Prior knowledge:
The protein has helices spanning 10-21, 36-40, 50-53, 56-62, 73-88, 161-166, 192-203, 228-243, 305-315, 355-369; strands at residues 2-6, 25-29, 95-101, 120-126, 129-135, 137-140, 170-172, 185-188, 208-211, 245-247, 252-258, 261-266, 271-274, 276-279, 339-341.
Amino acid sequence: xxxxxxxxxxxxxxxxxxxxxxxxxxxxxxxxxxxxxxxxxxxxxxxxxxxxxxxxxxxxxxxxxxxxxxxxxxxxxxxxxxxxxxxxxxxxxxxxxxxxxxxxxxxxxxxxxxxxxxxxxxxxxxxxxxxxxxxxxxxxxxxxxxxxxxxxxxxxxxxxxxxxxxxxxxxxxxxxxxxxxxxxxxxxxxxxxxxxxxxxxxxxxxxxxxxxxxxxxxxxxxxxxxxxxxxxxxxxxxxxxxxxxxxxxxxxxxxxxxxxxxxxxxxxxxxxxxxxxxxxxxxxxxxxxxxxxxxxxxxxxxxxxxxxxxxxxxxxxxxxxxxxxxxxxxxxxxxxxxxxxxxxxxxxxxxxxxxxxxxxxxxxxxxxxx
Length: 370
Ligand SMILES: Cc1cc2nc3c(=O)[nH]c(=O)nc-3n(C[C@H](O)[C@H](O)[C@H](O)COP(=O)(O)OP(=O)(O)OC[C@H]3O[C@@H](n4cnc5c(N)ncnc54)[C@H](O)[C@@H]3O)c2cc1C
């Protein structure tokens, strides 16, 4: 079977290795360079160790011994993903624009029928122009970090946010220190990414105002946290919160761009002036890529429905992400035959995806293909 795998992150690469092992013909397509998603946050250290971020299969293919400690994103790409991707012949700089099923439109052949015998049809943008590719099975491993959430109250753009971004003063994702110009910086978001930004900026001597939402950040980590890097991050975050200006219960209602920076108007009337705003409000899956396919998504998380429901009932929306167990092959099935969303994208807007879960999904999806 010819499998098209879109996204050469850790899960796309693992899926390709496993599928080849099973005798499938595999092509991996990546919008940027191999591991581009991780390269974008290469300066950040993972809180899980090498043993959890790599697989026996991958290490064996490269003849690698298990290293100690936790890698940065860049280290994982350099020593693991890039050499594996080179062996797999990843088609770099192939950005999926849209996927469909032969000549079938979305409303046709509901939940199966001719869909079973019709190859996928994928349109890519490449440096040499547009390319159309066919495949018998499709694994969407495109992650979520290419589509960050906006800054505004209620999860939509704040009025003025686009103008501020066009002026180069709004930074999404994972800006490095060098990306941020001089002056006071606002960081919006109390998750691990926001905490990482605040601690790094503070350590670099930058003046920071930290905006966190309605739920006061707990920054909690038990003394016996199974992941010491995670505990270290939260302890540093707590310390940083007390050292920087902290605006709790903050929702950005409007952003004005001035000659020397931004005025952030909060919903409760407070305002703060900064040179730059770093938005760390999480990510959302790009559902547009597979809009023509028959996939039902959770109305809250935007993950594929069956997996989303299983995750919700397993965790109740909380708990330690390390306690997750694989949800099994059945929840990966959607109405679209031989189509699977794997990796971080399969969790939709949830922020508790771990590579270990994605590696298990790879085995599950391939078991369904036979
Ligand atoms: C800062 C940060 C720290 C994290 N730390 C940990 C950790 O310690 N432990 C852990 O288990 N998990 C961690 N995660 C969560 C998760 O494991 C990672 O996000 C991981 O990179 C997900 O792997 P993935 O292969 O699903 O997606 P990604 O690594 O995001 O790979 C997706 C790839 O698809 C490509 N792509 C996107 N759109 C297209 C398109 N249209 N066409 C072609 N290619 C496309 C992207 O360029 C990217 O290279 C972390 C996440 C972040 C953001």
